[in-house]
Structure formats: structure tokens, C-alpha cells
Write a structure and sequence with these properties.
With 500 residues, this protein is an alpha+beta fold. 40% of the residues lie in helices and 18% in strands. It folds into three domains: 298 residues, no CATH class; 123 residues, no CATH class; 58 residues, Arc Repressor Mutant, subunit A.
Length: 500
């Protein structure tokens, strides 16, 4: 069964899952949506709270232009409709970490309308199906604070540092049909946000989290009753929510019950969802236009500036890597998945072109293969991320240039790379210091080959009788005798002559 036909097997037949996601992404901004208070993560509780955030009487909100700009840039990045007229609404409810007694949001007139994201379910498979997931809207709103239940044995404390932080709520259409598809959607959305720079995408810190809407139906029938699981902060947890909730709903229906429209929470330790409260409708919050804020009116020049500020986005970059640089679909997909990886690769490529004096396409495959096999493998063993790499793009390009011009062999390059990781030295300095330059001295190589052939007459006879695989044995023995410094191509050529 493919992911595109993901089904829940019930006692009475097959069921299809329908998934929609509301992703809350914290806007990259040094100050909050309606105040000048800071937004830095990890600050002391209640150290980043203005009079507006704490709802002191007479304090009026002022819209942060940068937050509006980032929302528009995000909308443009997903080819969405930008609404040049939008409005803020008050969503009224009481909660201990919301001093105002209402949240300023956008219900009726959001800043961004419909858009779409292309999602590939399996990046490792070039033939994996691509799905278009619709975006219904993006609106901007202020976050609430945080209740801290573990600071006192009988009381809960309130931290208002997050209160008023700007969020983009990115609402998908109910277009996803499997846990992995939902996971791929969030990965792609996160990648776009990070390329644009409108959100850091750090799910562990809560700057990106998802409300997961799940319902089940018989394949092709009308949508069923959905539940919403709040504040899921990892892709793995999101997929677990879909799996658990879909199976739970099927069990409820098949046992004669009805799915209740409600808000639920996910227990990561048990891998289960549990009821939180009955699902409210918009009228329960008594939405009305915020009287303290004028509508947002955007002019063409502002939108054009936002569009011009966008970088090359992952889909366009991936296509360029494949079509212009000749990278495989898999390599291009992996390198463009995160903008930090793409930036590192492009720095490596630019340095490599400069050092080797060759065209980009000639250097690109060598650079991509080394980055994905050697550097990624080494960093994985060290438990380091790419931005913590002991080897810089310039140093990586220096190493690859030494291989390309024949100064060192591929096997010697691996030894040099290990020393680079340990010491931070450049490749040229290590090769010079250790005396690792590759030799093209045919006389020295011929002398070693003669010794090896004389010592292995039985294998020479076998090779001449048709056992061609023994050629690798002679190559290995020669390279060993030359301490890995012989030019492999010269060794191959001289061995073929000697053995015939």
C-alpha cells in the first residue's frame, strides 16, 4: 500500500483519514506585535513584558511593521493572494495568561488568502508522487503567555514573556490523507519559512507548533466530524497524533458511538490524545473588530518591496541544481531542504570553482558527493550540526582541489580530512607537513610492481587464465607498497602493461 492510499483497517472495512493543519509560526522580529517588548527566547520569566502586554489601563496597541512585512513575504513565498485590506478582530475569552481578556487576531479579513505548497512524500525516491496542499489563509495574531505548574507545590505561576509575541497562523485545507503526508507538509512549510527568514522554525522552543485536525470517513464519502489536537511541537508527534486519533475515531464509530467535535491534547509519553474541552465555534468568542486598531492597508510599492526581498526558494533552487548543475534529484533535494545546507554548499562550490578554475557544473557533483558522504558522515559521528563544522567551505574546497589536480589521491584525502577535523588545519598545510603528495614517478611504481608480481606468480597465472577480479588485488598491493601516495591511474596503466 502506498502512502497516497493510506487506509485504516477497521472491523467493518477500510477508512480514510482527512487531515488539516493550523501551524502557528512565531514571526522573526526583535519586538512584539503591538509593543516594543523583546522576544528573545529563554529570558527570565516576566522580564520582557511591556505595559501593553500586561494590559495596563489606557495602553493602546501599535502595529509592528516588520511583523506585517514578514507575513506578506511568507504569503508571496507560497504564491498566495495578498489582501491589501485586512483587519484585526478581538477574540474574547478569559485565561490566566491573557491579561487583556481577549486575543487580537484576524478572523474575517486575514492579511493573506489562498495559496499552495508542493509536497514530495519521499525525497529519497525521485519517482515519489508530488501532492499540492492548499493553504486557506495566513493571519497574524498575538500569542498568549504561559502558565508554569512546576514551580510551586500548590500554585501555578504566570510568565507573560510570550504574551503579545507575533504569530502567523497558517491554515491548510483538509488536503492531507496520511501521517507521512502531514509530516512532509510541515517539513516543507518549515523549510520555506526558514528560507524566507520569517520564522526560525524551532519546534523544540515552541516558535513553530501545529494544531492537528483529524477526521475519518469511508473512502470518497463526505467529511466526518473532526477533532483538533492542540500545540503539537514535533513532526514525529504530529504523525503519532494522526495515527492514534484516526484509529480512535474508527473504533468509536464501529462500536456504535459518535465522534465528538472537541479540542484534545497529546500525551507524548503515552502516545495518546485526551479530551481538553468541547470545540468552540467562532460565535462563542464574540469576535468583533478591534476598536483600537485601524485596518491594514497595503500599497503596491510595499508588496513589490516584499517580493523583491525574497531569496531563491527551495523548489527553484532544487530545479536549478538538477537542470544546470547536473545533481541527482536526491542530492538536490537533500541539499536544498534547509537553507543553511544550501548556503554551505554554494560557498563550497564557489570556492571550488575559484581554486580549480573549472565551470560550476564540473565542480558541483564532486562538491555535493563530498558534502553528503564525507562531511555529513563525519558531523553525524561527532554529533555536530553543519554550522558547528570544524571544516569551513573554503577548507573543504581546498581539499577537493588537491584531489582534482592529482596532488593527493582519494584515499589520502580521507586521511587528510580526518586530520582537518581534529586540528582545524588546512588541507595544503597538512599534505606538505606530512609529506602526503601523490607521486607520478613511474620508475618507483614500476619497481614495486615488479616485486609484487615476482612474489605472487600463482596469482599472476590465475589472472592470465581469466580471473580478472584479481586485478584489484595487484592494485591494492601496489598502493600499499607506495604508502597510498601513488597516482591510482598511473598504477592501473602500469599494472595492465606488466600483467599482459
Amino acid at each position: 500500500m502506498t502512502e497516497s492510499t493510506y487506509r485504516i483497517q477497521g472491523n467493518t472495512g477500510e477508512w480514510e483519514v482527512v487531515i488539516g493543519l493550523e501551524v502557528h509560526a512565531q514571526v522573526t522580529s526583535k519586538s512584539k506585535l503591538f509593543s516594543g517588548a523583546a522576544t528573545e527566547f529563554g529570558a527570565e520569566p516576566n522580564s520582557q513584558v511591556s505595559l501593553i502586554d500586561s494590559a495596563m489601563p489606557g495602553m493602546l496597541p501599535v502595529v509592528n511593521r516588520e511583523c506585517v512585512r514578514q507575513a506578506v513575504r511568507t504569503g508571496l513565498a507560497i504564491n498566495a493572494q495578498i489582501n491589501k485590506w485586512s483587519r484585526f478582530d478581538r477574540k474574547n475569552y478569559f485565561y490566566a495568561d491573557l491579561p487583556q481578556g481577549y486575543q487580537i487576531s484576524q478572523l474575517y479579513h486575514p492579511i493573506v488568502g489562498e495559496g499552495a505548497i508542493e509536497v514530495t512524500q519521499n525525497e529519497k525516491d525521485p519517482d515519489s508522487p508530488t501532492r499540492t496542499i492548499g493553504i486557506e489563509r495566513i493571519h497574524i495574531e498575538q500569542d498568549a503567555g504561559k502558565l508554569m505548574h512546576d514551580q510551586h507545590p500548590t500554585m501555578s505561576y504566570v510568565d507573560l514573556n510570550r504574551c503579545g509575541v507575533a504569530l502567523m497562523e497558517i491554515v491548510s485545507k483538509p488536503d492531507m490523507r496520511s501521517p507521512s503526508e502531514a509530516g512532509a507538509y510541515v517539513k516543507k512549510l518549515r523549510s520555506i519559512l526558514r528560507y524566507v527568514g520569517s520564522c526560525d522554525g524551532n519546534m523544540e522552543q515552541g516558535s513553530m507548533r501545529a494544531d492537528v485536525n483529524v477526521s475519518v470517513r469511508r473512502p470518497g464519502e463526505e467529511f466526518g466530524t473532526r477533532t483538533e489536537t492542540k500545540n503539537v511541537n514535533s513532526i514525529r508527534f504530529l504523525q503519532q497524533v494522526v495515527e492514534y486519533e484516526a484509529q480512535r475515531q474508527v473504533d468509536v464509530i464501529e462500536s456504535g458511538g459518535e465522534v465528538v467535535q472537541e479540542t484534545r491534547l497529546f500525551d507524548a509519553n503515552k502516545g495518546e490524545t485526551r479530551p481538553m474541552r468541547s470545540k468552540e465555534d467562532a460565535h462563542d468568542y464574540r469576535y468583533f473588530p478591534d476598536p483600537d486598531l485601524l485596518p491594514l492597508e497595503l500599497d503596491d510599492e510595499f508588496v513589490a518591496e516584499c517580493l523583491a526581498s525574497l531569496p531563491e526558494l527551495p523548489d527553484a533552487k532544487r530545479a536549478r541544481y538538477e537542470n544546470e548543475l547536473g545533481l541527482s534529484a536526491y542530492n538536490a533535494a537533500v541539499i536544498t531542504a534547509e537553507h543553511e545546507t544550501a548556503d554551505w554548499f554554494e560557498a563550497l562550490l564557489a570556492q571550488g570553482v575559484a581554486k580549480q578554475g573549472k565551470a560550476e557544473a564540473e565542480v558541483a557533483k564532486q562538491s555535493a558527493n563530498w558534502l553528503m558522504s564525507e562531511l555529513f558522515g563525519a558531523l553525524n559521528k561527532l554529533g555536530k550540526s553543519l554550522d558547528e563544522s570544524p571544516v569551513s567551505p573554503a577548507q573543504g574546497a581546498e581539499l577537493l582541489a588537491l584531489v582534482a589536480d592529482g596532488t593527493i589521491s582519494g584515499s589520502i584525502a580521507k586521511q587528510v580530512f580526518e586530520i582537518m577535523l581534529e586540528t582545524g588545519q588546512g588541507a595544503e598545510a597538512i599534505v606538505e607537513e606530512k609529506g602526503l603528495k601523490q607521486t607520478n614517478d613511474t620508475g618507483a611504481i614500476k619497481a614495486e610492481i615488479a616485486k609484487i608480481i615476482a612474489a605472487n606468480q600463482d596469482k599472476v597465472a590465475e589472472y592470465k587464465s581469466g580471473k580478472d577480479k584479481l586485478f584489484g588485488f595487484f592494485v591494492g598491493q601496489t598502493m600499499k607498497a607506495m604508502q597510498g601516495k601513488a597516482n591510482p591511474q598511473v598504477v592501473n596503466d602500469l599494472l595492465k602493461k606488466a600483467l599482459t
